[in-house]
Amino acid sequence: MASEKQSKAIPLSHHLSEVAKARKPSPLKGLSKYFKQEGVLSLAGGLPSPAYFPLSGLSVDALVSDSFALAPTERSSSFSWLWKLLGSSSFKKERTTAISIPKYSATPDDINLAAALQYGAAVAQPQLQNFLRDFVMQVYQPAFEDFTVLIDTGNTDGWCRAFGTLCNPGQGVLMEEWTYPSALASMMPAGVDPVSVPMDGEGMKSDALEKLLSEWDEEARQMSRPHVMYIVPVGQNPCGTTMGATRKKQIYEICVKYDIIIVEDDPYYFMQLGTYEMKSQRSSVASPVSHRSGDEARFIASLEPSFLKYDYQGRVIRLDTFSKTIAPGARLGFFTCNPVFAERFERQGETSTQSPCGFGQSIVTKILTTWKYEGYIRWLQGLRTEYQQRRDFFVDCLADEFHLQATPAVAGIWEGCTMYRAFSKPSVLNTNEKLLSQSRALFSFIPPNSGMFVWLKLNLEDHPSFTPDDEGTLETKLWARLAENGVIFAPGWFFTTDDLASSEPSAGHFRISYSNAEYGDLKKAVNIFGRVIREFFDEQV
Amino acid sequence: MASEKQSKAIPLSHHLSEVAKARKPSPLKGLSKYFKQEGVLSLAGGLPSPAYFPLSGLSVDALVSDSFALAPTERSSSFSWLWKLLGSSSFKKERTTAISIPKYSATPDDINLAAALQYGAAVAQPQLQNFLRDFVMQVYQPAFEDFTVLIDTGNTDGWCRAFGTLCNPGQGVLMEEWTYPSALASMMPAGVDPVSVPMDGEGMKSDALEKLLSEWDEEARQMSRPHVMYIVPVGQNPCGTTMGATRKKQIYEICVKYDIIIVEDDPYYFMQLGTYEMKSQRSSVASPVSHRSGDEARFIASLEPSFLKYDYQGRVIRLDTFSKTIAPGARLGFFTCNPVFAERFERQGETSTQSPCGFGQSIVTKILTTWKYEGYIRWLQGLRTEYQQRRDFFVDCLADEFHLQATPAVAGIWEGCTMYRAFSKPSVLNTNEKLLSQSRALFSFIPPNSGMFVWLKLNLEDHPSFTPDDEGTLETKLWARLAENGVIFAPGWFFTTDDLASSEPSAGHFRISYSNAEYGDLKKAVNIFGRVIREFFDEQV
Fold this sequence. Notes:
7-stranded mixed β-sheet, Aspartate Aminotransferase, domain 2, homodimer, Aspartate Aminotransferase, domain 1, PLP-dependent transferase (chains A, B)
């Protein structure tokens, strides 16, 4: 079944939910010829006059697109957190470009507040629409040509519209065994339940998926075979795994075989960080990298492809967001998908959020169109490097605090990856060296190769108070102990789709984010974590 | 059943839909004590560093709060549209105040982009929350003290969350016989149907409501008695009616009796425009009005109260929006309601839109807090006067174009109001005077005393091609004829809740908005309408 480039999306409207089918087409669609007449006087809509919008203009000091370096530029040292704290980009003088958005503009092609702040269709402003379409073509290269790009207020809104359009109550959605809690919290009240698929070091396992679907027993499951998949293939939340091209092709073909719609939630796509190397193995002084022509294309080519690239049928609904690349508060994201689905998402937008905020849309659009495509890619490259440094720094902190032992993982969610087991380190302050002498690992993890999170597996079965099925209680106890000491991680139970089917039943988990805290705070948090977990493993609780 | 001031909301959780009941409480609620610790290091959330938000500051030229006059200031004349066109405020030099929002601020009390553009709870920024709570207290004076104010992305989002939280599929919602089409388009695909309540010149009729509920026949209707009402009490959309205090109290008590939740959708609340007087009866030169201390309180006292004022039980969910008072593109509104409902709306927000856009929120908040409460009320007074002038000008245009005859309406949706019947006027250009000689009214209307719309009832039964049940076709034919001539009104069929039960079955309708077009265009549109409707009534079609 060869993937044919530039095919047309196939009709997939049998996937629509009852609610989606009941939505009427826009009543204005048939009348659009009248609205488009030159000089038409429309007294139809309840539009306030823009004269009454209480502002005459807006301006923004936008960062330049090459604000962040392309490669780590400072010496790697155990004091780099201090250097970074002092030199942190938030305190450096930022280079900016003044951008202004007037209330009225000479031509409608220029972004203006009179238009941006008026009621409008639940689609992007034309300038943003053009930018996004070009961006999708160049970066994701969808395999079907009639794809639609439609904005939303971010991927939470996107997923909410997607399952509402695809799922009836009582249906299930295929998900990675650990997943984004908000995706669950959106759909479960609507009677749509997760169907857990086992993972390995690349995320969802294709063989496990095939097995699950081929052996699906409607009666035993009390559920028809799922026709929708929700997947976070890059910077998997919470596990931090990245799915490569081969696995994506395998999963796509299984979804063709079983007629499944893939919802690809991909906020961390541009945070593909590469493999972590121990500090001692990284070159101590990175050579400064200057920008060269063709760099954007090389960067894009270096990224694992989106499912869209293999989507010759139009069964992928890709969710993109500006939350991680511009700012979460922009509340701006976009679908790329089959026009059949996009039309239903647009109707749903009209009767819920309407268009995303005109302030946010026009500011983001103006920044993007000022940078242009090449500038935005340069910005994304800079961000990638920043998060890579944060990831490296955080794992270095763990390596400073614990004795790490690298082992190839042969089973479980990290199968195929180099796993690090963390042992207590002998220390002049820690006179109790029982733990190390017994070679008892406190936890294990793999340094993520994308995204924002380290996913820790606590070796609770080695805890003195451990009894089977007690791991949840121990996880919560350690979580609370940490919180009382001023450090908050995300507890593992947030992220589970299926307690019973988990391939890691006897381990507690924490998700730790290295994306936001100052470097000094990351260091401090790891020190506190070290002290608390050592004490915890050394006592009956 | 006396309305007691400052009572507590009563428990009304039996009104929650199955979906709303299935929503879990926020998992973070129980953990909030940890997050609030001084100096806590949270590595739990997937937050990007604000250093990566690509802007260092934002500034806005905000209009001053007294930008618009308190009373009409120019001579009323048939050429006022020309005067207004040339002198329109959108072309006048606007008086502005420079407002800036930095990325980082010295104290968290100052609005800053680092906080506004970060992920946050689905509630307002603290500065906005304080402003709104004070505003609700002073303006709407809710009768129960434990009300909650919660932001949303506008009243479409608000209604979408409200019916989702209150209604199961198969249930009905009490609505005015003519209503806002988007409210229908949101709920009907979810299997929630309108139950039409007759109207008069004040909107929904209380006696008709009582009759409908007391005689409710579950079997004949194939529906349980509705427990939710959707109502637009001010500037009723599309009819332009305003509901007074007495009627509101009557309806509230009926809702207490039958245990009904009232969703008060009130975007036009501050556009209470007073009764239209014919141009000849208005004082020809309005005296300029200067602002005096206490004016805000007098203005607020002059407005018909919200249902909240009588809501001693907490069964009113009020929907407010900044779409008509700031700008639609702000996508910002707020609920005022019982905390039981507000908590569910917040959960629904977390899993759909999240928080409204941080750009929009911080700009609107900064404008409001710069103006302060008194300034915002002054702004609203100015807007009210602007819309009053627009309403007066538009009705004047109709009086210029047609011969208007005032008649008290004794039945139907305008019962109790002065209705105007519009006849063709003899004209030197119109040699066919058959119409006038036959005294055939072309249409009738009441000048609205609030909102943005004139609702026309076409006298289609007097059309030469009229056959019973044909009014829909004739309405569409005239609509298309007008559109072909470059004028677009909203067709009546958009707004119906119940074709069969309508008290005005034989009349076509148009909704005309005077809120946005330039005065010259309003004049021109009425001229074209005059020509087209006269020709239309004079021919077989």
